[in-house]
Amino acid sequence: MIALEKRPEPSRAFSLAAPLLAVAATMFFGGVLFALLGKDPFEAIQTIFWEPLFGQHWRYYSPQLLIKGAPLVLIAIGLSLGFKAGIWNIGAEGQYIMGALFGAGVGLAFYPTESVFIFPLMVLAGALGGWLWAMIPAVLKVKFGTNEILVSLMLVYVAEQFLASMALGLMRNPQGMGFPGSRNLQQYASAHNAELLSGTGMHWGVVAAFIAVIFGYVLLARHRLGFAIRVTGDAPRAAAFSGVNPARLVLFCLGMSGLLAGLAGVFEVAGPAGQVTIDFNVGYGFTAIIVAFLGRLHPVGILLAAALMALTYIGGDIAQSKLQLPAAAIQVFQGMLLFFLLALDLFTNYRLRLGRKEVV
Amino acid sequence: MTQPLLSLTSLTKAYPGVIANSDVSLKIAPGEVHALLGENGAGKSTLVKMIYGLVKPDSGQMQMNGQPFAPAEPSAARTAGVGMVFQHFSLFDAMSVAENIALGMENAPKLGALSAQISAVSEEYGLPLSPDRIVGDLSAGERQRVEIIRCLLQNPKLLIMDEPTSVLTPQEVEILFKTLRKLSAEGTAILYISHKLEEIRTLCDTATVLRLGKVVGHCTPRETTTREMAELMVGKLLQTPTRAGQQAGDVVLSLTGLRAPAPNAFGMALKDISLELRAGEVLGIGGVAGNGQDELLAALSGERPVPRGMVHFKGEDIGPLGPTARRERGLLTAPEERMGHAAAPDMSLTENAMLTGAVREGLDKGGFLDWPAATRFAQSIIDKFDVRTPGTHVAARSLSGGNLQKFVIGREVMQRPEVFVVNQPTWGVDASAAAAIRQALLDLAKNGAALIVISQDLDELMEISDRFAALNEGRLSEPRPAQGITVEEIGLLMGGAHGMEVAHV
After folding, report:
1. Please, which residues bridge with residue B475 across strands?
2. B310 and B167 in one domain?
3. Are residues B314 and B376 in the same domain?
4. Which of A198, B205, B218, B320 is deepest in the core (most CB within 10 A)?
5. Coiled coil located at which positions (chain B) (predicted)?
6. Contacting residues of B for A238, CB less than 8 Å apart
7. Claim to verify: residue B204 and residue B258 sit in the same structural domain
8. Does residue A330 form part of some domain?
9. ipTM over 0.90
């Protein structure tokens, strides 16, 4: 008989080891998966984890690490605040899209005026867009007790329709010869979120991501609000007893994660993506959920987890082109990471007992 | 001496890290009412679980009527004539009494026949209970009768009762005792677990005292004082809380027609509660669990704010204020449930000290938290209230119930409340810790604080209260001086036997 036994204290060692074990397990079972697909598992794993950093084209790939990692960090930091308090924003993808649309909208509205104020205005608009989109599930939850998981998730699909409508209609490039998609913001100096140091991938979104990590850390470790978030997650009744207002906490957590997702959106649309297109969003909002958990909802952990996820994204792309691995296999590989992490997470608070079941 | 019904010889049971029972022997004769005494964690539950077949002893023998007895599971124990009434009932709210009883029986008869049997047994033993009623509508006392009748239908030779009176009014206790005496007169032995020593003196013929898993003594309760029994249980001399009678000061807290709707389907609405609390006095509030205790505490702590005009603190209307604002003014509270309500289980003691201490201890500096100061505050609670723990970094859930309770009460007491409201301050706490907590409460009153102590332990209330009131169905009785009040009067204030008269026997 196998039984789970609650540990008297959460195991700190296991809490730190679980992400590493999860990565190891993912490599192993991912390798099995690739082998079953008829690819050399060692080559595949090496391509995914090694090639982007140390392969012959590392100069081209490694800036991608920051470009892919920054939006993940921004979104995941926001999500982790809510997740810690048991407030589940699953719709960061929608908030990311709305942030991009608001930001791009402001930029396009000013075209072709050149001014140093345009980009900061776009950033503010992007943050506002994400915040507003997250306020919908937040207000509905506070006022009517709706489930924020469902509402925020469904709003992703609404946001995607908005995006399509904008790319085909209002924001379509008038000089684009009928092709869908907006003007390219990379060619509009005042709105372009350009690389700060050429060839590094470093743009304002990366700066914002690092600031978000510090902000998240200070908030959770030192501030009253962060403490309220942690207590609510551990014991909601104790939080209420200590004076936490649950409604305000919901508004704060959802609002904050929406705002950060919106920021990620605007930095992306004005920088690496450059334009509003139908398929502008590539799932950062969902991947960030994995990143948040992989990073143990800890700001520094999230930074490392985002780097790892970005690596699998880039490595996955290389593996697709080089080894002809199907895109779905890469997604399964990324999914495994979350799966193993959550499974191993159990052992932080529980230990396995083999032997006869004891009735107590 | 007659042959014992049940004899236990050298029973030992160890769990990882703790020996629950070590070399325990005892004998119970037919018809004997045998008390099992001991503090929490003394091993009483493990011992009865071995008799009832829930736990297997590591070594030692049990004999029933001279035959070896080793039940592998509860049904084997029941077949051998052992019945057990648990402290926590295992009943389905949505089903009728008869259906519930049928579920717990092997080869239950048809429902109609069973109903007739239930009526017969309830008549015979003075346990009024209608088989058709839905369990969800029953009072705690009536639910217990369902459990007892379920046992009696199997004609037990030995009935084990685990803390049966903790949910009963004094009148209901009387009914229960009559039933138990009748059973005993008919030759059914009763193994009675309780920490209410006065009850044991009234009811039981013999007592076995356990401490840390070992038998430390036997006594005849009728010839032993409660104090001697308590000292046998804890193994040391008990400090009786002392207090100096003193003049009550100004009114610090007043409730005027306090009403609050029930928080949920299982809650109780507060109905028109009025009282005035003066500095330096202790108001004891008794009542059977579930009559509005939690709701009253929530209305006072600010967890559930109430409309204007109902709660005044030193003349200020604080009804709509939340917990933090009330704390700031000096109104502190400690809820009944330690784990998850008074304390966050997975958080450290430092963090739990921050939980309510942030405002009054100056741990919150413009929104930023001073953790070193919180650690010092937690450490001072640990030192002053003798909380046994390796340090301030351990999670609250790793503390024993009594230690966590000392921490939770200490945390509020250390913040110098002007009014302190506490629900069940010594619930599940061992005798010496309970005495320390009561003394701390009395010291608080002596220094001029006003206290409301909500408790289901009448002995405790009598020991520390200046005035006494009872909650019944969300209403509070008129507070009256505690001195000279009798248990019968208290029982009537608490709502008598919940409308149930003793059946004609």
Report:
1. B472
2. no
3. no
4. B205
5. none
6. 340-344, 355
7. no
8. no
9. no
